[in-house]
Amino acid sequence: MNALITSEKLIIHRPGTSEPVLRDIDFRISPGEIVTVVGPNGSGKSSLIRALLGHMPLVSGKIIRRRDLRIGYVPQQVQLDRTIPMTVRRFLSLPHWVGAEEAAKALARTGVAGLETRQLTELSGGQFQRVLLARALLHDPHLLVLDEPTQGLDQPGMVAFYRLIEDVRHQTGAAVLMVSHDLLVVMRSSDRVICLNGHICCEGTPQDVGNAPEYRALFGAEARGTLALYRHHHDHDHDHGPQHDCASHG
């Protein structure tokens, strides 16, 4: 009853076609959860995010959002016109102006304090991702949605960014919904993983999904290596509670 967003029997077609990109999607995310969606290219991961945000039409099914739900969104890509000068401070005030103190607090929270006067085009990839995250956090969201937020970052940058996401969750209490292809980091950072390939193949705790044959069939040797590393680092200190169903859906 306290879910932030719920979808029931969601079906979405590829734009301009009658071909389903997603079918029979039952989804929910609760306050404080970190949920990650994984799947191969073309599996419908970003389409699910866009549908949940209300940016993609539904063929059938429904999406229920909690009343007064605030969502912070970090998109997969942001196209910048490098000929137009724009400081970090100005970027944080688009489309709605925010005060200097609020902007400084958001940047400090994401580990990039003091960048207000820097041009966006001067930032490293890691700095820019943290500025995007700061912008998403400006209005104290109940739910933070991240669509492949570490695209273009090197391995240390990815690990650092996902650690930051965990810290943000603990500091703010916001739930986090991520799309990611970084399997190892997903296993280390998520409470629940959803494996998608046009439908929900399996879902549950990282170890549940790592053991599911559907997940292994999709990711092969990469999945086995990821699970081995996950077990080595985490089985000693994770209490995941009841096991989730990882049977194939549909």
UniProtKB/TrEMBL annotation:
Tagged with keyword Transcription: no
InterPro entries given in the database record: AAA+_ATPase, ABC_transporter-like_ATP-bd, ABC_transporter-like_CS, Metal_Ion_Import_ABC, P-loop_NTPase
Residue span(s) of domain ABC transporter: 5-222
GO molecular function, a single term: ATP hydrolysis activity
UniProt-listed GO biological process terms: response to zinc ion; zinc ion transport
Top-level lineage group: Bacteria
Region forming the signal peptide: none
Name of the featured protein: Metal ABC transporter ATP-binding protein
Source organism of this protein record: Paracoccus alkanivorans
Lineage of the species this protein comes from: Bacteria, Pseudomonadati, Pseudomonadota, Alphaproteobacteria, Rhodobacterales
